[in-house]
């Protein structure tokens, strides 16, 4: 199962809104097939594992165990049901990390397998399975995207220079890592001030990978049209209190001014099937997520250079999960 979990991670950034899934097929202590869900819309892990088996070993399937990180699907989507394929191949046993929280599956895959006489065992390394697909589970269980708050700060606690002037705080290796993170999440978000002062592109340039959906909060629609955010190079959502319309790949979405903003915004992203958001600033936006308790990870880079004055970084909360060096910087990761 650890091998299946390892295989599943190879789909990171390529399979959303589907979950990452890995599968290993074992017979008498020997792996005879393995696979993972490689890209959204393409074959699922179980199908890839089964069709990786050498022709000379196919006869072993009825006496084999299938280790898979998530409940085999039971419905037709982009691909036919994996539960049906396992039944067709008459596998002996299926061992799984987690039940699928998607209402289209939600135990029905296991039920199909058991009715067909296949032994089903669940819960093996379940905690690791939930960690692997934290975005997928958060989306279905909490009806909102998985929220990652990210910023870089100086040792004296500043996130930008005086007046919000952009300052390079973290190093080149950290920048490259952030671009990899962007490629792995569905969307990336900034507030009005960051959009105006930094004029970010919010795309993936330093590593291979897909661009996320860009999100900006511009309550009064004050941002200039010539900002990189509005260059039509990738889908962009502009949440505001003025209007709803679409121009090219830029979609303005009106929210209610007399209701809390973030719950409305996250509810809209849920309806759009956005499963994860990387929030890159600024301080006011980051703090709003923290104060509302609407976050799942906090990733903070700390550099060596002092600023003496500037925009104060958000106050770190939560439980320290991990600390590592990234070039000259220290990266710390927190959970609520």
Automatic annotation (TrEMBL):
PROSITE patterns: CYT_DCMP_DEAMINASES_1 (PS00903), CYT_DCMP_DEAMINASES_2 (PS51747)
UniProt-listed Enzyme Commission number(s): 3.5.4.26, 1.1.1.193
Cofactor note: Binds 1 zinc ion.
Pfam families registered for this protein in UniProt: dCMP_cyt_deam_1 (PF00383), RibD_C (PF01872)
Name of this chain's protein: Riboflavin biosynthesis protein RibD
The protein's annotated pathway: Cofactor biosynthesis; riboflavin biosynthesis; 5-amino-6-(D-ribitylamino)uracil from GTP: step 3/4; Cofactor biosynthesis; riboflavin biosynthesis; 5-amino-6-(D-ribitylamino)uracil from GTP: step 2/4
Required cofactor(s): Zn(2+)
Domain CMP/dCMP-type deaminase: 1-121
Gene Ontology molecular function: 5-amino-6-(5-phosphoribosylamino)uracil reductase activity; diaminohydroxyphosphoribosylaminopyrimidine deaminase activity
Function: Converts 2,5-diamino-6-(ribosylamino)-4(3h)-pyrimidinone 5'-phosphate into 5-amino-6-(ribosylamino)-2,4(1h,3h)-pyrimidinedione 5'-phosphate.
InterPro entries in the cross-refs: APOBEC/CMP_deaminase_Zn-bd, CMP_dCMP_dom, Cytidine_deaminase-like, DHFR-like_dom_sf, Eubact_RibD, RibDG_C, Riboflavin_Biosynth_HTPR
């Amino acid at each position: 199962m650890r091998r299946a979990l390892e295989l599943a991670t190879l789909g990171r950034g390529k399979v959303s809104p589907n979950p990452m899934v890995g599968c290993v097929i074992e017979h008498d202590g020997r792996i005879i097939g393995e696979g993972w869900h490689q890209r959204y819309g393409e074959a699922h892990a179980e199908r890839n594992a089964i069709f990786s088996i050498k022709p000379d070993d196919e006869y072993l399937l009825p006496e084999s165990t299938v280790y898979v990180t998530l409940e085999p699907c039971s419905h037709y989507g982009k691909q036919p049901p994996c539960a049906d394929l396992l039944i067709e191949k008459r596998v002996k046993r299926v061992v799984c990390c987690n039940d699928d929280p998607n209402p289209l599956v939600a135990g029905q895959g296991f039920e199909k397998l058991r009715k067909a006489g296949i032994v089903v065992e669940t819960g093996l390394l379940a905690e690791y399975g939930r960690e692997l697909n934290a975005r997928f589970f958060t989306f279905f269980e909490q009806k909102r995207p998985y929220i990652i708050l990210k910023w870089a700060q100086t040792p004296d606690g500043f996130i930008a220079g005086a007046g919000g002037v952009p300052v390079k705080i973290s190093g080149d290796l950290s920048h490259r890592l952030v671009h990899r993170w962007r490629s792995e999440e569905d969307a990336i978000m900034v507030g009005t001030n960051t959009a105006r002062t930094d004029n970010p592109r919010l795309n993936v340039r330093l590593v291979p990978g897909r661009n996320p959906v860009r999100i900006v909060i511009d309550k009064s629609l004050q941002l200039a049209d010539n900002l990189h955010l509005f260059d039509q190079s990738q889908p962009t959502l502009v949440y505001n209190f003025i209007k709803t319309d679409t121009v090219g790949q830029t979609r303005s979405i009106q929210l209610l001014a007399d209701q809390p903003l973030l719950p409305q915004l996250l509810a809209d992203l849920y309806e759009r099937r956005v499963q994860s958001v990387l929030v890159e600033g600024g301080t006011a936006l980051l703090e709003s997520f923290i104060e509302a308790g609407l976050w799942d990870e906090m990733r903070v880079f700390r550099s060596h250079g002092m600023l003496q004055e500037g925009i104060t970084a958000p106050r770190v909360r939560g439980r320290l999960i991990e600390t590592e060096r990234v070039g000259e910087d220290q990266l710390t990761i927190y959970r609520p």
